[in-house]
Design a protein that fits this description.
The structure is a homodimer. The first copy, chain A, is of the alpha/beta class. Chain A has 8 helices and 11 strands. Helices cover about 40% and strands about 20% of the residues of chain A. In chain A, strand 10 and strand 11 form a beta hairpin.
């Protein structure tokens, strides 16, 4: 089974690595890292780089697509090459999935039309502009299209994918192998749970970072 | 503030990227990816590679060290160069931290002598052979030495580190930015919680993988 994680300039590392660490344990599975170009692909802050071993078009029909997010996903929303590859991949895929703002790329490709979908909480409303119905579920499952919320949610999404592909025992074994027994020191991981003033700070910081990249 | 994440052949991606995604949001912080050699460093299964932008010795005295684990950490336990760099870094660090079997490297360097420490659950007993007191806490804090349990625990550890460095509001803001509101589909993330037969399967698979790499 081929799993493609398509990379692009300014993707978010954990969006890609969370699901990777889960899915790479599956038997008879090959994960491919593909980029707009082959070679190192810089993450959101240009502080870390993952190596793409080929370009998106090298695998037109993967069984599973896992699209990470990051500020860079905005540029893909009007990139005909990126939209074309994703549409073609989705047409033949067993599962088309995204983490965080990776769902904006799916939305712009028309893949989320009429579906419930999620994204980073700060971008949920953007999904509605592209014909999706935003939901604040952590993992939104609509047939073969599965979208996950912000950054860290890809781990939860991928465990659900393992359950769908190989059953609950396989998912539990994977969870145990990566010792995923989360104990965050605070209960502030969603805008419903975090103090209102912290939500506003994060909203402002993220908006200014995105603006800085745009200009 | 300089944070070094030392890479090595056959490290575990999520061990490194979990803390990175948390710590890279801090103000006035530079994360450095350093390897035994500069260039792409292959992960545990040689399926993914992160780029090291220099060698360990380029930064002898980082404020914070975050040591990832992976099957490759075994080789570092008898590597005088690796042990020497880590001892020197620890002597001057503000915090010396590890995720998963990264603690074996710390233990072999003598950094865990007489301290409570943790690791991936499958390697806890190994710590005792190197003078540490194993604990199954997810994050074990002993002054400036902080060790975390298996793979995914580095996210929890790093959030605690943000709290220590910048206070609880900063940690909550970071948690919200990465939407860390974990909702694993099962409660099987530790050997105490997973069904006994699944613990045995994972133990057998991991032992055979390690054996395969050894021979």
């Amino acid at each position: 089974m081929q799993i493609v994680i398509p990379l692009f300039d300014r993707f978010t590392m954990l969006d890609a690595i969370g699901p990777y660490q889960v899915l790479n344990t599956l038997p008879d599975t090959e994960v491919r890292w593909l980029g707009a170009e082959a070679g190192p692909v810089q993450d959101e802050s240009h502080t870390a780089a993952l190596v793409a071993d080929g370009v998106w078009e090298d695998v037109p029909h993967p069984e599973i697509v896992v699209v990470p997010g990051g500020y860079g996903s905005r540029a893909l929303m009007t990139d005909e090459r990126a939209l074309g590859w994703l549409r073609e991949a989705h047409e033949h895929s067993r599962y088309t999935t995204s983490v965080c703002t990776g769902s904006l790329w799916l939305a712009a490709a028309g893949i989320l039309d009429g579906l419930e979908a999620t994204s980073h909480w700060i971008e949920l409303e953007t999904l509605a502009q592209y014909g999706a119905t935003p939901t604040s579920q952590r993992v939104a499952e609509q047939g073969k299209v599965i979208t996950a919320a912000g950054v860290s949610s890809g781990i939860d999404m991928a465990l659900r994918l393992v359950e769908l592909l190989h059953g609950p025992e396989a998912a539990q074994a994977t969870q145990l192998a990566i010792e995923y027994d989360p104990q965050p020191p605070f209960d502030a991981g969603s805008p419903d749970k975090a103090p209102a003033e912290i939500v506003e700070v994060v909203r402002a910081v993220m908006a200014s970072q995105q603006e800085a990249l745009r200009t």
